[in-house]
Amino acid sequence: MTFATVTGIVIFMAIMGILFAMSLVGMVASDSSTKSVDKNSVMVLKLNGSLDERSENPSPISLLSGGNLMESGMGLDQVLSAIEKAKDNEDIKGIYIEGGMFAPDSYASLQAIRNALSDFRKSGKWIVSYADQYTTATYYLASVANKVYMNPEGMLDWHGMAAQPYYLKDALAKVGVQVQLAKVGAYKSAPEMFTSDHMSDANREQVTAYLNGIWGNVVKAVSESRKISVDSLNAYADRFITLSKADELKKLKLIDGTLYTDQVKGEIRKMLKIDEDDEIHQLGLADMGNVKRSKKEGDQIAVYYAYGDIVSEAGENLFGGGSVIASSTVCPDLEKLAKDDDVKAVVLRVNSGGGSAYASEQIWHQIEMLKQKKPVVVSMGGMAASGGYYISCGSQWIVAEPTTLTGSIGIFGMFPDYSGLLKDKLGVKFDEVKTNRNSGFGTRARPFNEEEMSYLNTYIQRGYDLFRKRVADGRKMSIDQVEKIAQGHVWLGQDALGIKLVDELGGLEKAVAKAAKLAKLDKYHTESYPGQPDIFDQLLASASGANGNYLDEQLRLTLGEYYGTLMLLRSMPYQECIQARLPYVPNIH
Q1: Tell me, what's the pLDDT at 70?
Q2: In degrees, to the nearest 5, what angle opens at C-alpha 409 toward C-alphas 404 and 415?
Q3: For residue 259, which phi and psi values (nearest 5 degrees)?
Q4: 3-state secondary structure 137-188
Q5: How far apart, in whole angstroms, are the C-alpha atoms of residue 407 and residue 471?
Q6: pLDDT value, residue 317
Q7: Is residue 477 helix, strand or coil?
Q8: Who's near 5: CB < 8 A, 6+ residues apart?
Q9: Phi, psi angle pair for 298, to nearest 5°
Q10: Residue-wise over 535-552: b if at least 16 C-beta within 10 A, else e?
């Protein structure tokens, strides 16, 4: 009886496993089937959730709990592809934008989307936008539309921008922890979060510069689309029109009218020139992903996505989940692309504030090897700074968005001292026996002494000197020229162009065109790398905890902007000490 019971359980589990696998395959197949486009259709772009550099499939657990392939947030690649397909498809007449609670990763990403929408309009097609309330980010996108509508009792948040970084020095001190710092670069402000309680003068200077630069780009774009002067838009922000009535916003020409959701459909029908009772054929982002592209022709240009914190191993992600640029993965991938004869050029799409200096050097080296075989062009996203710039500087050509945060050529080492927590708070006592003068280097029993800190500062300086040399060699500049724009200084892409840190302003499409030119290609198409994991790989990763889990996804949604800080504090003991990165939490809103 026992044997029969065990056998029955095994058989039952096997059957359930097969059914589970079949259900997953069915869900994926239903979401990835080719989508036909009805005549007189409209593409729907709902600005909800997060916007990341690249779209990723949700976890299998999320799928089984009733989710779909879109619930993990939008990818910039996905949005740009959908807009391009909609522009080229003669059956799609326009785009309907619906604003919601939208969290973009950067204004550079928004700028890329807005440029794509503007290009869509130039093709002769129309765009209509509607929202109950517009954030500054959603209005920046919506303002490119032919018509901008809002709920009669809605809100348009237009008050300018502010950066409010926060500081943890005093919070850590309450539990007996302090952070010892070795750094090079007057503008290298990332460690301030742990070693100060306010912004340094140098950091305030650079934050003021890039914040005003981003806001200037936003105001200029809205001014051109809505035919409102820049001075007037700044005056509206100063007057805090966010709480103004909708009728007042219409008088100020910020919106074209007020409607309820059922009335918006009538406006869309007018644009489509169909009767009130006719069905509106709609395609969302998921649908557009399954709309066929024109046949791929010509040689292949690889677009390799490198976004997130730069780490040595994937499990070292600073914030505990999401994407990383792991040198242990990226380097072999780039080596394969170098050996792939079908790949004629590589565009490295970088969106990173940096991370491990060691990992950055490994990736830099691999790019050096790659460009000996074929052209390498960098396309910068929201950020390509510090370690992100380190891995970019050796390429033959660099393209950045005007609002990309880049530069930050500097390096630092942070060394948490837990002796106060252990001795004063927990009552742990230490004693010591050693063989040599510095045998106790790195002990948790005490902070570094003056001699030990001098060794660390020398080591950090050597890392900074190497960083400068990498930039000087890659950008064909002298060390002195690099030093004048280094010191950890963060630059906007539009400012980096004038100091030779980047070669051209624009998006991914310009980087691809330059790569094709360098490779002397007449006809070409792009392929994205690394490949997206299939549902079974994701299932194995979820089971092992390699890529976070469903609870982590829910925690991220619940905590919002505070999720990063929580994960940062949790992972502090496990970070690599030598870092090349931007401030951890710029906190721009």
Answers
A1: 44
A2: 115
A3: -145, 160
A4: HHHHHHCCCCEEEEEEEEEECCCCCCECCCCCHHHHHCCCCEEEEEEECCCC
A5: 10
A6: 52
A7: coil
A8: none
A9: 80, -170
A10: beebbebbeeeebbbbeb
- Catalytic residue, chosen from 59, 386, 395, 419, is 386
Select from 68, 485, 15, 35 the least CA-distant residue to 290.
Answer: 35
Which residue of the set 87, 93, 188, 510 is catalytic?
188
What predicted TM-score, i.e. pTM, was given to this entire model? 0.85
CA diameter of the chain? 90
pLDDT, position 69: 44
Distance CA 132, CA 128 (A): 14
Residue with tokens 């280094």: 486
Beta bridge pairs of residue 449: none
Cα gap 457→460, rounded to integer Å: 5
What's the pLDDT at 90? 93
Residue reference for tokens 């237009």: 158
Structure tokens at 521: 């290609």
* 100, 47 Cβ separation under 8 angstroms: yes
The answer to whether 142 and 97 have CB atoms below 8 angstroms apart is yes
- 188 noted as active-site residue: yes
Q: How far is it, in rounded angstroms, from Cα 463 to Cα 358?
A: 9
**418 closest CA partner among 440, 443, 449, 454:** 443
Single-letter code of the amino acid located at 177:
V
- Closest of 37, 475, 207 to residue 483, by C-alpha: 475
Residue (of 24, 47, 42, 78) closest to 286 by Cα position? 78
Q: What is the CB-side half-sphere exposure of residue 307 using CA atoms within 13 A?
A: 26
The rounded distance, in Å, linking the Cα atoms of 58 and 78 is 15
Q: What's the CA angle centered on 116, arms 112 and 118, to 5 degrees?
A: 115
Sign of CA dihedral 93, 86, 84, 284: positive
What is the DSSP secondary-structure string of 313-380? SGGG-TTSSS-EEEHHHHHHHHHHHHH-TTEEEEEEEEEE-EEEHHHHHHHHHHHHHHHTTS-EEEEE
Is residue 360 part of the annotated active site? The answer reads no
Would you state the pLDDT for residue 383? 94
CA distance 6 to 584: 53
Cβ–Cβ < 8 Å for 390, 475 = no
Tokens of 445: 């029993």
Report the chain's mean pLDDT, rounded to a whole number.
86
Pairing of strands 411-417, 178-184: antiparallel
447 prior amide bond cis, ω within 30 = no
Which regions in the chain score pLDDT beneath 70?
16-34, 57-72, 315-322, 533-579, 581-589
pLDDT of 293:
77
Q: What token pair was written down for 454?
A: 């001098």
Residues 6 or more apart whose CB falls under 8 angstroms from that of 93 comprise 40, 41, 42, 125, 126, 271, 272
Report CA-CA distances (Å) from 180 to 196, 200, 452: 11, 17, 11
DSSP readout, 458-487? Answer: HHHHHHHHHHHHHHHHHHT--HHHHHHH-T
Q: With CA atoms as reference, report the closest residue to 301 among 382, 379, 404.
A: 379
The span from the CA of 316 to the CA of 546, in Å, is 10
In contact, 120 and 128? CB cutoff 8 Å? no
